[in-house]
Design brief:
heterodimer, A: 391 residues, alpha/beta, Rossmann fold, five-stranded parallel sheet, B: 319 residues, mainly alpha, 0% strand, globular
Chain lengths: 391, 319
């Protein structure tokens, strides 16, 4: 019996060693088959923010399927190779290396979160492979600390400061409120960045932040904080965070008797928000988003129709950015006329008024898209188009 | 005595040969960047699991805050090279010492606890370290410390790993190491025999924490970034899983566990949908068939491969 058990252990060890060694040998095999253009889809498919990764990947996949149905690019089919970074930055570096060196991806799309993108940047840059981040909003991603633009890094969504400004303008111009309380996630750069910009814009325009309270991601009980906020008599509350905590915050805010408008950021954009917070509590809440499903533009409606046909669910913000990102990348490859990373990056930086689902895609000097934002109001749990704001 | 030295020298020779082979393969580009990265990740995980094995396996304390020490090493190392512009060698030393110091300070009060209480205390410690880092703007807060140069090479990682394995092996065979083993087997009996249990527990904990710090310095200087999301309690569990899978109390077990789990994760990178399923199934099957880990508390040696199982009379199968 003992000998048998030992044998099992040794066999398993041996089997896995062999698996690993064959993996090593595998590096030689693929010099990218000439009838395919490989694009790496590098996303958070498991772990903490798997939801964002999957939604974005769905959008990317839809775009690539459509391009392939029309004959692909440069006369070749596009092969989308997926990689999962487990929502962890070091693993993101690992997967970026794999997609670029093993799978010979000519462009990377993703990851979703700014932290994972930051970890992939040195690898993409060293290998001269353009990286298109569909939904990473931290400003530092495309620009170095000294203001120099990173030549191979692009993004397809508006950046944090923009969203913060939009919400502050909306609060003052449309809602006509002056005293705003802020509740932010101190463990997230996204939330902290939005808070700073919002505060600055609000105060520049004569508003006032009457309370600023913090919480940590994964917190579940916000009642004591909310009671504190209530004591400061705010006319509105700004909660720039992700839907998981936000849904609980809104629910509990209404429970402690805070009936004022609650404002938020694009991290709210998930159907789960209404499922957790409840339709009633969500009335009189607004958030900023890149698009609204009720926008009558045909590009938006076509995207929604195709997405529903393929995945049987409604697309969210992440999906549409993923779709746009993939479309822009494919266009850049087409214009470059080759799969050379340097040429693709040049074409990406010259992209102007290219029609995508959210509107016209133009890349500015800092490799950010130029775009407006829409304000979405939640009415009985349904996202309704409130207004479009361009600064 | 002489034979032990000879044995060590032979092992060192074997390591040098292995190093030469892998280095050559890397040099001629037979092993691509992806596998080079994973080999270094394996070496870092080996350091982590071997150092955790010193605490959990040899001394019998249940610590699950190893990611915290990894983080301390990573961040101190990065501060030395990025913020202060000092050499990598110094970063390795300072990272190790800072981690060890923290281990010592935390170990003093918490190692008077035992069993579940120590587990909870170390789990808490790991989280405290992570939350602190999240809120220190100097090291980048929630966005992590970026722009760390890639100083870790295969040679650095390999020889540091060999050195650490050697130190821990010798520690285990030394007088303090024997005391640690005695504490693991029966703490009350050990105390009765005049062993200062807290002293030796703190000693093992400090050494283990220090080496986790070394791993952290290597980690940060290979992946260009030190990010709080890399040091969550899940990371601690990963390391613990490696040790338990290989067999608590077995050095070769800890090494095998680290190599296996890292390699599985890398091989399955092709199939993101199935990665976690297969990974978990592997663990479940192994744990059902070998609850004491791959090697139990035995060491893998050439003797094990001799027919007839001459080592039957030695350590018992289940501890």
């Amino acid at each position: 019996m003992k000998a048998w058990k030992k044998a099992v252990g040794l066999t398993c060890t041996a089997a896995l060693m062999t698996a690993m060694l064959t993996g090593c040998g595998g590096t030689k095999k693929d010099a990218a088959k000439s009838d395919e253009v490989v694009i790496g889809a590098h996303f958070e498919l498991t772990g903490g923010v798997a939801n964002y990764g999957k939604s974005t990947l769905n959008g990317v996949q839809l775009a690539i399927d459509q391009v392939n149905a029309k004959g692909g690019v440069l006369g070749k089919k596009i092969k989308l190779v997926q990689g999962d970074n487990k929502s962890e930055p070091a693993e993101a570096g690992n997967i970026a290396t794999k997609l670029i060196t093993q799978d010979k991806a000519v462009v990377l799309i993703g990851p979703a979160t700014s932290g994972c993108v930051s970890a992939s940047i040195p690898i993409a840059t060293a290998n001269k492979v353009p990286l298109m981040a569909p939904v990473a909003t931290a400003p530092s991603i495309t620009v170095e600390k000294d203001g120099k633009v990173k030549p191979f890094i692009f993004r397809a969504c508006f950046i944090d400061p923009f969203q913060g400004q939009v919400m502050a303008v909306f609060a003052e111009k449309t809602l006509k409120v002056k005293n705003v309380a802020i509740l932010f996630d101190s463990s997230s750069e996204y939330s902290k960045g939005l808070t700073d910009v919002f505060t600055k814009t609000l105060e520049d325009n004569g508003g006032k932040v009457v309370a600023k309270e913090a919480f940590l991601a994964k917190d579940v009980d916000f009642k004591s904080t909310l009671t504190k906020i209530k004591a400061s008599n705010p006319e509105a509350i700004y909660v720039p965070a992700y839907y998981e905590e936000v849904s609980k915050i809104i629910k509990q805010a209404r429970e402690v008797g805070l009936s004022c408008p609650i404002l938020g950021s694009d991290g709210w954009g998930s159907p789960k928000l209404a499922a957790i917070a409840g339709n009633e509590a969500l009335n009189n809440t607004y958030f900023c988003s890149a698009y609204s499903s009720q926008d009558k533009e045909p590009t938006v409606q076509n995207f929604i129709k195709d997405y529903k046909a393929k995945y049987k669910t409604d697309p969210d913000n992440f999906s549409i950015h993923g779709y746009d990102a993939a479309m822009v990348v494919v266009e850049a490859i087409k214009r470059a006329g080759s799969t050379d990373g340097v040429k693709i990056a040049q074409e990406l930086s010259k992209m102007k008024d290219f029609p995508v689902a959210t509107g016209k895609f133009t890349v500015d000097a800092n490799h950010n898209p130029v775009s407006g934002a829409v304000i979405i109001e939640l009415k009985d749990g349904v996202q309704t188009f409130k207004e479009k704001i361009t600064l | 005595m002489n034979s032990i030295k000879k044995h060590d020298l032979a092992t060192l020779g074997a390591c040098a040969v292995l190093f030469a082979i892998v280095q050559t393969l890397l040099f001629v580009d037979f092993i691509g960047p992806f596998w080079e990265l994973n080999i270094i990740l394996i070496l870092i995980n080996v350091i982590l699991s071997v150092s955790l094995n010193l605490i959990n396996g040899y001394t019998g304390q249940f610590s699950i805050g190893h990611a915290g020490f990894l983080a301390v090493g990573a961040y101190t190392g990065a501060i030395i090279t990025v913020k202060l512009g000092l050499p990598f060698e110094l970063a390795l030393v300072v990272g190790t010492l800072c981690s060890a110091l923290l281990g010592f300070l935390i170990g003093l009060p918490t190692l008077r606890l035992n069993g579940d209480y120590l587990a909870i205390a170390t789990l808490g410690l790991g989280e405290i370290i992570r939350i602190c880092i999240l809120n220190i703007e100097y090291v980048g807060g929630a966005s992590g410390l970026m722009g760390i140069p890639r100083f870790t090479t295969f040679a650095w990682a390999f020889w540091i790993t060999v050195f650490i394995i050697f130190v821990i092996k010798n520690f285990k065979n030394s007088a303090p190491g024997r005391c640690c083993l005695a504490i693991r087997e029966n703490e009350i009996a050990a105390e009765t025999m005049g062993i200062d249990t807290t002293k030796y527990k703190v000693m093992a904990f400090t050494i283990g924490a220090g080496f986790a710090g070394t791993a952290g310095v290597l980690f940060a200087h290979y992946f260009y970034i030190a990010h709080p999301a890399s040091f969550t309690f899940m990371r601690s569990f990963d390391i613990l899983t490696m040790v338990v899978l290989g067999g608590l109390g077995s050095m070769t077990g800890a090494i095998t566990g680290a190599v296996l789990l890292t390699a599985i994760s890398a091989v399955l990178a092709e199939y993101p949908e199935w990665r976690m399923v297969i990974y978990s199934l592997t663990l479940i099957i192994l744990m059902i068939n070998r609850p004491q880990g791959l090697f139990g508390s035995k060491e893998l040696s050439l003797k094990m491969f001799r027919l007839g199982g001459s080592d039957n009379g030695r350590a018992t199968e289940s501890k």
